[in-house]
Design brief:
There is one protein chain. The protein is mainly alpha-helical and 217 residues long. The protein is built from 6 helices and 2 strands; from the N terminus they run ααααααββ. A two-stranded antiparallel sheet has the order 1-2. It is rod-shaped.
Length: 217
């Protein structure tokens, strides 16, 4: 069954038409919406009056098959052109999306690369600082150890020198004791060990005059 329709219309409100649409005939036909919803013509629910009428005459519609439509070549060409334009726009959109996705991936990879490089540099710097810290600690430990050894050597040297002096003093004291026991005059003996200088010069300054006296004995 091929159905043809003829529409008779008139515009009752020109101002409303001008404000509401730029192509009133296209709004009447709505060709694209018809094509998009043509599958509904295979559903019996789209024909309630047909089904009800068949029941009244003792018939039953079991199935309806939509087998296509017919359109004028000009309208069909418009439809094909619209499909091609939409397909082209869709392809361009998908291409732009892919380019954008690739750009985002490259940007993310670049950010990850920079982050990894910064992380490596940071870890390298930390490692270098840790090595320097350990090296400084080791040098400080060696310096402290060396200073302690120096102090120990000085202390030991002083102790040895003190022991020698104590031994010499003890030996000298024993020597003096033996001399005293032998009846030696210790005063004369000590004076002989520490003789007086042959000459003594004394300088006496006069407080009231810039005169200095020399006394020699």
């Amino acid at each position: 069954m091929r159905i043809k329709l003829m529409l008779f219309y008139e515009f009752r409100n020109i101002e409303q038409m001008l404000n509401s649409t730029s192509d009133p005939i296209a709004d009447f036909i709505n060709y694209m919406e018809f094509i998009e919803k043509a599958e509904q013509l295979n559903d019996l629910s789209s024909y309630p009056q047909l089904v009800e009428r068949c029941k009244l005459i003792g018939a039953e519609i079991s199935k309806v098959v939509f087998r296509g439509y017919f359109a004028s070549p000009k309208l069909q060409q418009m439809h094909d052109d619209a499909i091609e334009a939409r397909t082209q726009l869709k392809m361009q959109y998908e291409q732009e999306v892919q380019v954008q996705d690739m750009t985002d991936v490259k940007l993310q990879n670049e950010q990850n690369r920079v982050h990894d490089e910064q992380e490596i540099e940071l870890q390298t710097l930390k490692h270098k600082q840790e090595i320097e810290r350990l090296d400084n600690e080791h040098k400080l430990k060696l310096w402290k150890q060396d200073e302690m050894e120096k102090l120990q050597r000085i202390k030991k040297k002083d102790e040895i020198a003190l022991q020698h002096k104590e031994v010499e003093a003890s030996q000298k004291l024993d020597h003096y004791k033996r001399l005293h026991e032998l009846g030696v005059d210790m005063t004369s003996y000590l004076m002989s060990e520490n003789p007086q200088p042959e000459k003594v010069i004394r300088l006496i300054a006069n407080k009231n005059a810039a005169v200095m006296h020399f006394h020699q004995s």
